[in-house]
């Protein structure tokens, strides 16, 4: 089902693939053996041609008149997304947002294992949050080297975000998942994925305001 030599995939397609995975897991739980692009599209309010193109871009093709075998398609998506092998990550910032991320159980299902967190608050260092050890930030580089961690999650106040990112880079972190509102300055070799909650809230608020303006009084 999965082709080799897959071309570079677009970011919008990558963002939709986990949606398909979630739909398929639900379908599997309901005992569905096969699905078509039409089934997936209907369940997610998309169009079938988009689903077909996305799966094709990921190197996954169905069978004519049969569609996709649900367990095989789930496995193919997990392999493509790298979810079949857990990637270890370190989180820096043991505040409210960091604690929420540590408590989210879905990451393991999506191939991410946050193994520990780091902070400079002496009241938190040495403790645990959702079963994860909290270490002093000055231990970060040594533990990255010792455990071969490549992903750093940044959940610190914006005033120290760049400094902490540089600590991550010096420690040989290769990818940073940035939950701050700071536009990080990093070398081209470092992958950064920004999750700007303030920007998302601004978009949501503006769309709501526009919707209310259009609605009849």
Distance linking N and C termini: 53 Å
CATH superfamily of the largest domain: NAD(P)-binding Rossmann-like Domain
The count of domains is 2
Q: What is the class of the largest domain in the CATH system?
A: Alpha Beta
Mean pLDDT: 92
Work out the strand percent: 15-25%
**Anisotropy-based shape:** globular
Rg result: 20 Å
Query: How many alpha or pi helices?
Result: 9
Flag low-confidence runs: none
Helical residue percent? 40-55%
- Structural class by SSE content: alpha/beta
Q: Topology as H/E string?
A: HEHHEHEHHEEEHEHEEH
Tell me about the largest β-sheet: 7 strands, mixed
CATH topology of the largest domain: Rossmann fold
Q: What oligomeric state best describes the polypeptide chains here?
A: single chain
Reported CATH architecture of the largest domain? 3-Layer(aba) Sandwich
The strands making up the biggest β-sheet line up spatially as: 5-6-4-3-7-8-9
Number of strands: 9
Question: Can you characterise this structure?
Answer:
By secondary structure, this protein is of the alpha/beta class. It has two domains: 11-81, Orthogonal Bundle (Arc Repressor Mutant, subunit A), CATH 1.10.10.10; 87-199, Rossmann fold (3-Layer(aba) Sandwich), CATH 3.40.50. It has helices spanning 11-29, 37-44, 48-57, 70-81, 96-103, 106-109, 140-147, 161-170, 197-214; strands at 34-35, 68-69, 87-92, 112-119, 128-129, 132-136, 151-154, 175-178, 191-194. Helix 1 (11-29) packs across helix 3, helix 1 (11-29) runs antiparallel to helix 4 (70-81) and helix 2 (37-44) packs across helix 3. The model has no long low-confidence stretch (mean pLDDT 92).
